[in-house]
Amino acid sequence: MWVALHYLTDFADLGLMLPLTGLIALALAAFGRWREALAWSLAIGGTFAAMGGLKVAMQLWGGLAAATNLNSPSGHTAAGMVVYGGLLLLILGGKVPRLRLALLAGLVFGGFFGLTRLWLEVHTVEDVLVGALVGLAGVLSLAWLTGLGRPAAPARTRAAIAAVALLGTLVFHGHRIGAENELQAIAAEIRAGLRS
Predict the structure, then answer these.
(1) Is the distance from CB of 75 to CB of 14 less than 8 angstroms?
(2) Per-residue pLDDT tens for 22-34?
(3) What is the pTM of this model?
(4) What burial class does residue 156 get, using C-beta atoms within 10 Å of its C-beta: 0-12 exposed, 13-18 middle, 19+ buried?
């Protein structure tokens, strides 16, 4: 059971998410979809930066964790929502209204990855909810930045994006980045700097 949960939750680990998002941005640019490439980079980068900032802040203000049961917002939940929800927007974005698709995809992927984190007992419900809010903001930003009423990319471009996403996922799934430890070290350095 635990092995299966780790296998599933690894689909939202930064070891996969970072190279996958870079590949998608490059593929969009290669097909001349500059607006989507920029929107993708801003929405994903903003989501990842927000999560990193929140995780460091939670380390700095540990008293908040004791009062709220919020320990470390779930980056897997946020990343899964914005990346996979965003991919659906790019691939299906002209066939289904973008805002509705962003909300639905975000909730499905957020729920899925949030549950894996809860079942593995690495996050609290509050951690998952904060991650879900950040991820949902990211995927909604992507929907807005790509243009809610803008026509979808040509079918061959959408097929190529799907193929790049599939290939990237197959190549990088299982790679893990220990971002939590690095963020804790950053928070410790900030704390030490504030004391001196």
Answers:
(1) yes
(2) 999 999 999 999 9
(3) 0.89
(4) exposed
